[in-house]
Design goal:
By secondary structure, the chain is mostly helical. The chain has helices at about 15-20, 25-55, 55-65, 75-85, 105-120, 125-135, 140-145, 150-180, 190-210, 210-220, 225-230, 235-250, 255-290; strands at about 100, 190. Helix content is about 70%, strand content about 0%. A two-stranded parallel sheet has the order 1-2. The radius of gyration is 23 Å and the shape is flat. Residues about 1-25 have low confidence and may be disordered.
């Protein structure tokens, strides 16, 4: 299914320009169009932000606070894996911290901040669709054909990354950080803003990281990388992935690092396949021209 969600695409550039009204548009006209794209995106974020704020208690109870509790699904699954392979240390028995709000307006501002994050995540498909609408008229017909399905795949990878960050990366990082102690006499009492900041940053960062296949697609199209280059540095990439996993999950056990490394390495292998497909399409186009 095409990413731009259109059942039929006419690749006649002249016809499309006439129909879209972009024929002979000036620079200021393009800026005006971009402004309206941004305004519509901001409205979409605002709508979902309002919904998130109205249901802020449910958002906190179902999404924000669960990773801070020992009965979170990730910790239970990790404990089951540990019991199955005889490594009981994988079980999370306590979360050595307490969340606090140290400012009068602290909880209200955190409700607004969380609602804004929810609005951004939920509205992401529409935001990217608006960006795609602005970019697409300037592409050649071959580029439009090659980029068909962009909205779908970018959205899919983004939400896969968000889920991976929320259920894997963020819980591992939070578990390590809250249970790390210099001395037992020091009590961990964290501001709710700090906790939400770590949770949101890691989750959104994974959503962006999962765009690697899309980035490789673009870089291959413009000739920056090739499948041969990616295969040549496959071992180097594995080392980098392990280092990234070690940073993301600063836990000393290797199981946590492996659980994080596997999806990242799968993304890299998918990126190689994407690059190969783009390269074959480029060679086929050159053969047809010759």
């Amino acid at each position: 299914m095409p990413l731009d969600q259109t059942p039929y695409i006419d690749y006649d550039d002249d016809k499309e320009d006439e129909e879209s009204g972009n024929d002979g548009m000036s620079f200021l006209d393009h800026l005006e169009e971009l402004r309206w794209n941004l305004i519509r995106s901001a409205i979409a974020i605002a709508i979902f932000m309002v919904i998130g704020f109205v249901f802020h208690q449910e958002v906190f109870q179902m999404l924000i606070l669960p990773p801070s509790k020992v009965d979170f699904v990730t910790y239970r699954v990790l404990c089951d894996i540990g019991n199955a392979i005889g490594i009981e240390s994988l079980c999370v028995e306590k979360m050595n911290f307490a969340l606090m709000s140290r400012e009068v307006s602290g909880q209200f501002m955190m409700a607004l901040t969380t609602a804004a994050i929810v609005g951004l995540v939920v509205a992401f498909p529409y935001i990217f669709w608006e960006i795609w609408r602005f970019i697409k008229p300037g592409l050649k017909k071959e580029e439009k054909y090659a980029a068909r399905g962009a909205v779908f795949y970018v959205t899919l990878l983004f939400f896969m990354g968000v889920l991976f960050g929320y259920y894997v990366v963020a819980p591992f990082a939070i578990n390590f950080l809250v249970n790390f102690q210099i001395d037992e006499s020091i009590i961990n009492q964290f501001d709710i803003g700090s906790y939400i900041g770590i949770l949101a940053t890691l989750t959104l960062a994974c959503g962006i990281t999962f765009q690697l296949p899309i980035a490789i697609f673009v870089l291959t199209k413009i000739g920056v990388v090739t499948p041969l280059f990616l295969r040549t540095y496959r071992r180097h990439s594995l080392v980098v992935i392990l280092i990234v996993a070690a940073v993301i999950t600063p836990s000393p056990d290797a199981i946590s690092q492996i659980l994080v490394s596997i999806p990242l390495y799968i993304l890299f292998e998918i990126s190689i396949l994407v690059s190969e497909r783009v390269e074959k399409a480029k060679l086929a186009a050159l053969e047809r021209q010759s």
